[in-house]
Write a structure and sequence with these properties.
Blueprint lengths: L1 E4 L2 E4 L15 E10 L5 E3 L2 E3 L4 E8 L8 H13 L9 H12 L5 E15 L6 E17 L2 E17 L1 H13 L11 E12 L5 H9 L4 E2 L6 H13 L4 H15 L8 E8 L8 E8 H10 L4
Antiparallel strand pairs: 1-2, 3-6, 4-5, 5-7, 6-7, 7-8, 8-9, 9-10, 9-11, 10-12, 12-13
Helix pairs in contact: 1-2, 4-6, 6-7
């Protein structure tokens, strides 16, 4: 192939990436990652967007080939982002996957991940002051070749913060109060900021708003950027009244997802990750779940969760 460099026409005799791999082992994924593209402020589902989307695009690599043609992966991302319309952002990653499979003829699988920072206008709990709350939207697509065509699976997710209040410490303090001179005062416990990410396989009817509501209702209480003193008291008391471990948050999110999307097929996948930045420990706590909506429904039904 002929290419120009500093006025010289070069005839490249070797396509190094297409050469045989010296160690013939198939690789699951080879990606261009942390790809950044600037965008102007937009609005998505009523949420304000002022961010640089972060994209990852990957394909598998057969054992017969030394490397991928990375520029083709970048071009697939650039092509999709250049035509980005945020009202149709749900289709961006699937478009990237389709282009990846077109450009990388040696690959049988492709995936793309797009992350966006969004801001929601909320109100503080008591004074109703307007406050901007940040969360992250996640879009993922996976594709593989089948009979000359391809099959796509699409996912939508959100990642945000909330408060977890420890049920264990609250129970111990309750016992101390009962055996001491406590007079029915609100029972305290330690609490911390926590993160939850929930991603659901979509048929086109899963929205960020639905997922954000699930996330908010899974924590002990929400975090709020702007709090007056009475707002702060309300947030703290609300968290104490609904103490939850990271395990509780993950299970609640799974249950609410199954309840929110009753028409999604049983084989649709759900992934949940919760991380608590522990306030009285140097370590943190995490809880993770990877399952299907059908498995959640089965366990809820068998254990009779109302």
């Amino acid at each position: 192939m002929a290419q120009k460099w500093r006025g010289l026409e070069l005839i490249l005799s070797r396509d190094v990436q297409s050469e045989s791999a010296t160690t013939p082992i198939e690789l699951d994924w080879v990606a261009v990652s942390d790809v950044l593209f600037p965008v102007d402020e937009e609005v998505l589902e009523g949420f304000r967007l002022a961010s640089t989307p972060v994209v990852e695009a990957a394909v598998n690599l057969p054992y017969t080939q030394r490397g991928i043609h990375a520029s083709r992966s970048y071009e697939a991302v650039k092509q999709a982002i250049s035509s980005l319309q945020y009202t149709n952002v749900y289709g961006i990653t699937s478009q990237i996957v389709k282009t990846l499979l077109e450009k990388h003829v040696y690959s049988t699988r492709a995936r793309a991940v797009l992350r966006l920072s969004l801001f929601e206008v909320e109100r503080s709990p008591v004074t109703k002051a307007e406050t901007l709350e940040h969360f992250e939207a996640v879009f993922k697509s996976y594709g593989h070749r089948v009979n000359g065509g391809h099959v796509l699976r699409n996912f939508v997710g959100v990642r945000g913060t909330g408060i977890t209040a420890c049920p264990c410490a609250k129970e111990v303090i309750r016992e101390i109060y009962l055996n001491g001179d406590g007079r029915g005062d609100p029972i305290p416990t330690h609490m911390q900021r926590s993160y939850c990410e929930i991603v659901v396989e979509s048929d086109g009817n899963v929205t960020l708003t639905q997922l954000l509501n699930i996330l908010k209702n899974s924590f002990s209480s929400r975090t709020v950027e702007l709090l007056k003193r009475v707002d702060e008291a309300e947030v703290v008391v609300s968290a104490i009244q609904r103490p939850r471990f990271v395990e509780d948050v993950a299970r609640t999110a799974a249950y609410l997802a199954a309840k929110q999307f009753p028409t999604l097929p049983d084989n649709h996948h759900v992934s949940i990750r919760v991380k608590s930045l522990e306030s009285i420990h140097r370590h943190n706590m995490e809880s993770r779940l990877r399952t299907t909506l059908g498995e959640i429904r089965r366990q809820v039904e068998n254990n009779r969760v109302a």
